[in-house]
């Protein structure tokens, strides 16, 4: 493999009302607003030294435009272009200048239908980590991962691991050893990209890293005080899988955001993927209330990188069911 993917680095999502989204993401959750124009809001976490990790784009309908990975060198973009082209995947260079703060970007629909993006350069900005005087809401630190529902987790896992060089930290398997969900990483934490068996392709959530559990609790108070208590969908609680302390929120357009803290290092080559049984109740919820039906059934649609149209979804290859302990 002659390219080196570093980490998940940004998500570009359509929203229907930028002011309404700004009130939620900036005023309530505490994202830093790097830049805004008529159609875009560019947001970052306090730890991030680059222009943005979340782009909200004004649109008539919500939908996910891209989930982006940063690569080590500019030339790796060309190598990725050739790699995807040779596989008949129709990669596409984005027009330069239509996006702020970012260099050359390459987009492609992955084999599951997810809109992937790659870039090497992003404009540097002031890192706000020690501007404690500006901390607000959840004190968002940085983007951590995306979690996607796909029809065929085993196929997605195989492509990301064998073709793109991801490694697996944890996975969920059925009684007959079919992979139900997989947590894959390039950066040395539990994941950059998780796949779950479900109606897909859809983005289930974007995870943002927080420094500590009290930031999650404090965010709940701030959300309630600002009239957003209804935005809390699940948690707070702790996952068995990944060990993260978590909270799931729904933004004003229904996109799901996870506040996430407390996972662990996965850098060692002899780290062995952790297997969880689908029916182990401690897998998804080590402690905390059971996930509501909406968490299992609802997710964000993704868009075609060429047409911008919503991609149709299909039922998963493994029969959809809730784990036994939930029913
Ligand atoms: Fe997550």
TrEMBL record:
Molecular functions (GO terms): 3,4-dihydroxyphenylacetate 2,3-dioxygenase activity
Keywords: Aromatic hydrocarbons catabolism, Dioxygenase, Iron, Metal-binding, Oxidoreductase
Sequence ranges assigned to domain VOC in this UniProt record: 7-121, 142-262
Oxidoreductase recorded as keyword: yes
Cited Gene3D superfamilies: 2,3-Dihydroxybiphenyl 1,2-Dioxygenase, domain 1
PANTHER family membership: GLYOXALASE FAMILY PROTEIN, GLYOXALASE-LIKE DOMAIN-CONTAINING PROTEIN
Similarity comment: family membership: Belongs to the extradiol ring-cleavage dioxygenase family.
Protein name per the record: 3,4-dihydroxyphenylacetate 2,3-dioxygenase
Protein's organism: Pseudalkalibacillus berkeleyi
